[in-house]
Automatic annotation (TrEMBL):
It comes from the Bacteria. Keywords: Ribonucleoprotein, Ribosomal protein, RNA-binding, rRNA-binding. Belongs to the universal ribosomal protein uS17 family. InterPro entries: NA-bd_OB-fold, Ribosomal_uS17, Ribosomal_uS17_bact/chlr. The keyword RNA-binding applies. The gene is rpsQ. It comes from Microbaculum marinisediminis. NCBIfam families: PRK05610.1, uS17_bact. GO terms for molecular function: rRNA binding; structural constituent of ribosome. This is Small ribosomal subunit protein uS17. The lineage of its organism: Bacteria, Pseudomonadati, Pseudomonadota, Alphaproteobacteria, Hyphomicrobiales. One of the primary rRNA binding proteins, it binds specifically to the 5'-end of 16S ribosomal RNA. Part of the 30S ribosomal subunit.
Length: 76
């Protein structure tokens, strides 16, 4: 099965080798047909600590690295 890739914005880089990425998705409400925006935060592995707050990054699914980390950060 292919690995999922998501696009998001870095909202935290305070942890060592970890960034928090906020991914926003839009969808049409099933009844009202209005566009709804929802966001979710993912912890991603950043081995070189090269991403900073505000950067737009891609994250790719991977095997669990720690309790919360199941994604790897890729350059946009």
């Amino acid at each position: 099965m292919p690995k999922r890739i998501l696009h998001g914005t870095v909202v935290s880089d305070k942890n060592d080798k970890t960034i928090v990425v906020q991914v926003e998705r839009r969808y049409a409400h099933p009844l009202l047909k209005k566009t709804v925006r929802t966001s979710k935060k993912y912890h991603a592995h950043d081995a070189d600590n090269k991403f900073k707050v505000g950067d737009i990054v891609r994250i790719q699914e991977c095997a669990p690295i720690s309790r919360n980390k199941r994604w790897i950060a890729l350059a946009e």
